[in-house]
Specification:
By secondary structure, this protein is mainly α. It has four helices and two strands.
């Protein structure tokens, strides 16, 4: 699906395509990234409020990367 798409450049629409991530969660990713700067690691993503282990796994399974690094 999103093979090697960096979470730092993914649009809300890219995120919404993942089953389990709806419009509200996708917007939170974009807002968090805008307010706090780019994610530098998966640890940064884990610190985002509302991100569960399941959401992280969905992102990883769907080929998202963070700062060019896969999970």
């Amino acid at each position: 699906m999103a093979k090697n798409m960096d979470l730092n450049v993914a649009s809300a629409q890219d995120l919404e395509r993942i089953q389990g991530i709806g419009k509200d969660q996708a917007k939170r990713f974009i807002d968090f990234r805008t307010q706090n700067g780019a994610f530098k690691s998966w640890e940064d993503v884990k610190r985002m409020p509302g991100v569960t282990h399941e959401i992280l796994e969905m992102l990883k399974r769907n080929g998202f990367t963070v700062a060019g690094r896969a999970a």
